[in-house]
Amino acid sequence: MIQNDNFIEFKNPELISKLDQSGILKNFHEGEIIVKENAYSNSIPIIKSGTIRVLRTDEDGREILLYYIQAGESCIMSFLGALHQDTSKIKAIAEEDTSILFVPIEKVIALIKEYPEWLNYIFKLYHKRFEELLEIVNEVAFKKMDERILNFIQKRVEITGAKTINITHEALANELGTARVVVSRLLKQLEDEGHVKLGRNKITLK
């Protein structure tokens, strides 16, 4: 069943069955690239289990985290790209071992016409991603880097359910679009203030 208590649950068994029959199920390992930037796609992904992170890369190769996609959710950017036959503007990476149902765009359109619940899913998804992108803009424009680092750690803890996240200072810097030396300095400051505890390639939220 395609569901996520934090987002939406399809209650129509016929819709669930048609999605499962129409899609192709693929499994990805942690760290594996699912969607590449500038690639074409003719399907949309629905996360059956696991989590993926969506990033944007600039011309210099620097990345910034846009949002996470969890079980029961999909990527609205992939939906829009497939719908308009445009290339992907984002990169998606498996945050953990992840199972994804890829539904062809023609099936997606047919289901929109047939099931109001499916159309409602698309609108809710669009609204949620729009709010997350506004949050990113707000952080970049108005928040200090130490606040952004702490928010990032808190979000990862919320998603994984574990107080400790495994990440290097360089990887954290890449996801926030800043320099590793800045991240290392501010993490030490956050540790001195009692917010986190640092370990080798890991950070524990206190």
Keywords:
alpha+beta, 206 residues, 2 domains, single chain, Jelly Rolls, Arc Repressor Mutant, subunit A
Task: Report what the structure shows.
The chain has a four-stranded antiparallel sheet. It is built from seven helices and twelve strands. It has two domains: 11-141, Jelly Rolls (Sandwich), CATH 2.60.120; 144-205, Winged helix-like DNA-binding domain superfamily/Winged helix DNA-binding domain (Arc Repressor Mutant, subunit A), CATH 1.10.10.10. Mean pLDDT is 85; it is low at 1-8. α3 crosses α4 (116-142) and α6 (169-176) packs across α7 (180-192). It has 206 residues and is an alpha+beta fold. The radius of gyration is 18 Å and the shape is elongated. The chain starts with a strand and ends with a strand.
Number of strands: 12
Number of structural units classed as domains: 2
The largest β sheet comes out as: 4 strands, antiparallel
- Structural category: alpha+beta
Write down the CATH class of the largest domain: Mainly Beta
General form: elongated
Mean pLDDT: 85
Which band does the percent of strand residues land in?
25-35%
Residues in helices, as a percent range: 40-55%
- For the record, give the distance between the C-alpha atoms at the N and C termini, rounded to a whole number: 36 Å
CATH homologous superfamily title of the largest domain: Jelly Rolls
In CATH terms, what is the architecture of the largest domain?
Sandwich
* Low-confidence runs of at least 5 consecutive residues: 1-8
Rg calc: 18 Å
Spatial ordering of strands, largest sheet: 4-8-6-7
The CATH topology of the largest domain is Jelly Rolls
**Helix-strand pattern:** EEHEEEEEHEEHHHEHHEE
Count of runs of 4 or more consecutive helical residues: 7
